[in-house]
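Quality-control log, excerpt.
Job 1 of 2 completed; input and output follow.
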Amino acid sequence: DLELHLQRCQQLSVTVLTDHQDLSNTELKTITNSTAPQQYRIRAKLRTYKPQKLHQSVKLHCSKCNSLQEVPDRDDFDFILHGSAGTAPNPEVHNTSWYESVTWTTQERKQREIAIHFVKHDEMLQHPEDTLIMIEGGTLKEIWKLTKRFKCVIPVRSTEDDLELLDLSAPFLLKGNVKYYGCKQCSTPKPMKNLSSIAAEQQPSWEPTEIAQVLGIELLQYVFIMKFTLVDETGSLNAYLFDD
């Protein structure tokens, strides 16, 4: 557990933080006065680390514009879904050559219309575990149930002549228990009909990278980032950990 390990590091008076056993120890002052890149072995105290809570270390990174952003929380997604549920599904865009649509009205006090569009392959519905579906008007709870049954789920809304993605503050795709996000700055969302090119493939894989590409989405990657402040008797050094 990294968090416990970091707490232990703070308690120890001296901690070896790198593993270049063939190198002699270098003072931090020497490192800060050197030009990068270099390889060093150091002995130092861990003064502080950020963020303090490990889950806050996970961010979303865009490799195109190099931006970092917080992972939206459950409430953000829920709010966007409630907003889109206020618009009834448009029957004019149901049951096309590449997907089959099913609609129903919920029995709750504030009734909602829900539409699910099952993407077909060779004009046939596939097994659920191989199928991508698009859903209009669903709640977060309903969408999570669908991700357990179907390969991929895309929340959408109707326009006059097609289906489109929701606000990119929401995940554009859910696969298993993973939510996939697109960069608002670098993406140019395209209508859902562009997915028909993947549906026409001999064996559609429905990989997130391929889906993102045909929908004009610059896919954000989950990254792990931390900042450590290291000290010895000669000075201090900020060290950054950044990884997928």
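Job 2 of 2 completed; input and output follow.
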Amino acid sequence: SCACLECSNPRRYNLLKFSLSRINTYRGIASKAHLSLASEDAMLAAFRLSRELRRLAHKEPEFKPEYIALESLSQDYGFELLGMCRNQSEVTAVFNDLAEDSETEPEAEGLGLAFEEGIPNLARLQLAVSYNQKRFVAHPICQQVLSSIW
């Protein structure tokens, strides 16, 4: 929404219309097609969207079920994307990949460093933990990688 009168008046005077418009916008943003095509790092975008939807669910309790459903949909994206990995090299690429723009965020500071020599840095997994992506972390592939490192 911009700051013009046409956009700002509904926010002030017709809160129901504004809330419904926001929910419909987030329905489009949370779709798998939009996440895949509109962002350079779709998994990070899904993590951020999930956090934002969780915040909105608390901000607008009247529409909490809708926001929780959309949050679940965005969490499913990362979970399903991890499930599409066909071999170990793809799994390693998913876990160690970290977009350049995310390194400026407080959650991403220091994630590019490896734990020890020969152990992958698992930057994406650490980011998933900081974004509270429980399904992603609980994925069998993720658990297998952690078990093999342990």
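Post-run check on job 2. The first helix runs from residue 5 to 13.
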